[in-house]
């Protein structure tokens, strides 16, 4: 096996020190050609940091990188690109106001005679890439109009356009649908067959086992396991990741639901050019109840949550909180009435990257710390510390900027920020996206605890196991409409069949 997959790049004794954090403590790692090397570990373990060293984005504090037997030193990303290394970052790095083609070729635009940008060539190449990724996206589409999963695909296309010999994929599938993941896996197969070496990072453990040939586990900046994927199963990974076997979550006891806490009636969001993104959706949630909103990508689930949060001025329909009409027309008004939304795209909607972790956490709840116009700083700081502990957010100091946190820990800050507003109704869009298995269990336990305290929770997920394990009731949406409603314990097949429009859908009322 080793012969079949020669080592294309290796890092020895890799150390990375950030102010206040030793993110990597002497790491050895090999990238094998024609194979997929997966990298796994808890949030903040150092995965992205290790990849940033290889991609020339961060400078290594100590250690060596060798390629084809020669020591190399990447001072900039351009150095690494020149050496044939491509990377898809965990956080999207795209420009919403540019077209898909412009995003893909930004920084390495094809030119005519070295002068003018050859926009036609850009378009042709983009069309080819989209075909390869089986996407129905035209080159001139404005990036900002794509849903986040499609943006992730554009990010992947951007890396493919480089023809890299080594391709790093840092959580490429966190916003992809199951079908899109399959497409990516086919592309990965093609690439490895051509001899490309792939590094693949994901928190979806089943995915790692399927796609990987080799696995390396990182824990707190140190490698705790590295081997060929043969014989590796999920318990092995979890053990190497967190030092104990799987943490379970789920419905513990039969909950005692309170009265209806939230109701939506005939919520409608027209689509530009006709039809509806959200098509007359009505639903209700009781205090203490966790309702899972399941469906395929583009079913209108996120948009429905945004309507509840007053983010779509053109939507219509009525809401009630605790039996009283929700007439406030803006986001602060809805927050004041006890609605909180944890958005899917944390980089765009959730966080202000340059502000301190503490400031981000308390941003939406400043009124609670303000008495006669004076901000109670001590109380604010204490509450921030409490939430950091409760959500096990890995920080060097609450005063560091949010940008210094690992991707998963940023997600936890978004959750903490919403919880701090003391909501009655919590809307969560893909709450487990990008967080590790231990933190996921923690977030799910937190959801359970909040529900037990009387909150109503509506969460969107594309993960079938998750919706089945966590929901007291499941509502399925397809093409903007509610196409099914199921009590806890419903057979998975029934739930899935409701996601396919126009099929015969059994409607089992849960009430
Ligand atoms: N720019 C930075 N400044 C300071 N500390 C940083 C910076 N970037 C990362 N860190 C710290 O380095 C450690 C490793 O972070 P890294 O992003 O590599 O984690 P990760 O394994 O990719 O986690 P995740 O699964 O959440 O993406 C964390 O403690 C993080 O807070
Ligand atoms: Mg990361």
From TrEMBL:
Which GO CC annotations does the UniProt entry carry?
plasma membrane
Q: How does it sit in the membrane?
A: Peripheral membrane protein
Location(s), subcellular: Cell membrane
UniProt KW keywords = ATP-binding, Cell membrane, Membrane, Nucleotide-binding, Repeat, Sugar transport, Translocase, Transport
Which residue spans adopt a coiled-coil conformation according to this UniProt entry? none
Classification via SMART domains = AAA (SM00382)
Q: What is its main location?
A: membrane
Task: Show where the ABC transporter domain sits.
Answer: 9-245, 262-504
Q: Which Gene3D superfamilies is this protein grouped with?
A: P-loop containing nucleotide triphosphate hydrolases
> Transport: present as a keyword of the record?
yes
Q: Which one of the record's GO molecular function terms can you name?
A: ATP hydrolysis activity
Q: Determine the domain of life of the protein's source.
A: Bacteria
Instruction: Keyword check for Magnesium, yes or no.
Output: no
- PANTHER family membership: CARBOHYDRATE TRANSPORT ATP-BINDING PROTEIN MG119-RELATED, D-ALLOSE IMPORT ATP-BINDING PROTEIN ALSA-RELATED
The name under which this protein is listed is Erythritol ABC transporter ATP-binding protein
What is the scientific name of the source organism? Rhodobacter maris
